[in-house]
Amino acid sequence: MNVTLRTPRFMLRPAQVGDAEPIARYLNNIAVSGNLARVPFPYHLSDAKAWLKTRLPNLPAEATNFAIDLPGEGLVGQVGFHRGPAGPIIGYWLGQPYWGRGIMTEAVIASLDWLFSVSDEPAVYSGVFHFNAASLAIQTKLGFTQTGRSTLLCLARGAEVEHIDTIMTRSVWKARNK
């Protein structure tokens, strides 16, 4: 879906060809890519360009990604969804210079509000590698529930890593927003 969302501090918009350089710059940092399952390290400009080619304008809601676009800064991260076996999975990353400012919490809230408003999905799945306390704190603050632990391949680390699995149900999200 070709959707743009506005939050109090920034815009969530479709990724664009011009985003390749900042994507490559921020993801070519093991502190960022090492927290993600599907991102290699090192991460090159060619990787960003190849990924951007997969961002088609008419993807379904559960395959939508948003560039986090800060005024005066441009793209500083991504938040989005991909289809997993049980339903949509939300994933996100933020360039290291922008950590600790509440940007990702705001982006995840806006994207979940959007997904639950345009779909009938009963739940959104996510999770974090066991060492990613900041991402787990975001999910805990928003009401995600831990459902167990698994192992997941982390391409950047080239290893199977312990993963804390989480879920956000539509009913918990609606209750949270009342």
From TrEMBL:
<feature type="domain" description="N-acetyltransferase">
    <location>
        <begin position="10"/>
        <end position="173"/>
    </location>
</feature>
<protein>
    <submittedName>
        <fullName>GNAT family N-acetyltransferase</fullName>
    </submittedName>
</protein>
<dbReference type="InterPro" id="IPR016181">
    <property type="entry name" value="Acyl_CoA_acyltransferase"/>
</dbReference>
<dbReference type="Pfam" id="PF13302">
    <property type="entry name" value="Acetyltransf_3"/>
</dbReference>
<dbReference type="InterPro" id="IPR000182">
    <property type="entry name" value="GNAT_dom"/>
</dbReference>
<dbReference type="InterPro" id="IPR051531">
    <property type="entry name" value="N-acetyltransferase"/>
</dbReference>
<keyword id="KW-0012">Acyltransferase</keyword>
<keyword id="KW-0808">Transferase</keyword>
<comment type="similarity">
    <text>Belongs to the acetyltransferase family. RimJ subfamily.</text>
</comment>
